[in-house]
Write a structure and sequence with these properties.
3 strands, alpha+beta, 70 residues, flat, 2 helices
Length: 70
């Protein structure tokens, strides 16, 4: 199988590269577009931490989550 870190790379920068969009998406860097999911834990070592979402930012705005009481 694939490690948690390899799965994250495949789903983010790897996918952007496969689509020819790695100059715009797929990683956090100045000048790139990014949606960000903040989780409780380190998904590079424990992929289950992706189930513990604390905050989401999309298109530069915070998106309400269940933790916000929504």
């Amino acid at each position: 199988g694939m490690s948690a870190e390899d799965a994250l790379v495949s789903a983010t920068s790897g996918a952007a590269g496969a689509l020819g969009l790695d100059g715009e998406f797929g990683s956090l860097a100045a000048g790139l577009s990014a949606d960000i999911v903040l989780v409780d834990g380190d998904p590079r070592t424990d992929v289950r931490s992706l189930q513990r979402v604390r905050m989401v930012f999309a298109r530069g705005r915070r998106i309400p989550t269940a933790d916000d009481g929504a």
